[in-house]
Amino acid sequence: LEKMTDLVAVWEVALSDGVHKIEFEHGTTSGKRVVYVDGKEEIRKEWMFKLVGKETFTVGASKTKATINIDAVSGFAYEYTLEINGKSLKKYMENRSKTTNTWVLTLGGTDYRVVLEKDTMDVWCNGQKMETAGEFVEDGTETHFSVGDHSCYIKAVSSGKRKEGIIHTLIVDDREIPEAVE
C-alpha cells in the first residue's frame, strides 16, 4: 500500500446509510488526483496537465453525487471544496438536519445509528434500509421496525406549532432515545 503523501483534504459526510470518509490526494507536481471513499479508491488520474478542475463520484448506498472542486488560490496554493448533491457540504448538512432525524444508541454492546428520512419515512440502521410497518395511533403515527431482538418504533406527533411541524421520537424497548447531533 503506497503512502498517501499527496493527501490534501479529508471530509466526513453523514448520509442515511452511515458516516462516510472522503479523502483526496492531489499531486501538484505530478498532476495526480486520487479520490478515496471509506478507504476504497474511487478515482485515480495520473499526469493531469490541468491542476484545477473537478472530480465527481458517488458516495454511499444511495449513490449520492459528490464533487471535489480544485481551485487555484495563489501561485501554487490550491483550495479544495466538497459539494454533495450540488450544494456545499455545509449547506447540504444544514438542509439534511431539516429532512432527517438521527439517533445513536448502544444495544447489547453494539452501536447503532438510526436515521429517519422524513420525506419518505424510510428508516436506516447501520447502513441498511429497514423493513418498517406504519400504524396510525390516537395522537399520530408509529413506524415499527426491529433491531436485532429489540422492538423499535418512531413516533410522529404534531407539535401543534406550524413552524416546528412534526416531532419524531425513537422508542426502543419502551425507552425514549435522545436525538443525536451530527
UniProtKB/TrEMBL annotation:
Chain coiled-coil ranges = none
Per UniProt, which keywords does this protein have? Apoptosis, Cytoplasm
Query: Looking at the record's lineage, which domain of life comes first?
Result: Eukaryota
* Major localisation: cytoplasm
Identify one Gene Ontology CC term for this UniProt entry.
cytoplasm
Q: Where in the cell is it found?
A: Cytoplasm
A Gene Ontology biological process noted in the UniProt record is:
apoptotic process
Keyword set includes Lyase: no
- Classification via Pfam families: FAIM1
Q: Which family does it belong to?
A: Belongs to the FAIM1 family.
Q: What does this protein do?
A: Plays a role as an inducible effector molecule that mediates Fas resistance produced by surface Ig engagement in B cells.
Q: What is this protein called?
A: Fas apoptotic inhibitory molecule 1
Q: Which species does this protein come from?
A: Herpetotheres cachinnans (Laughing falcon)
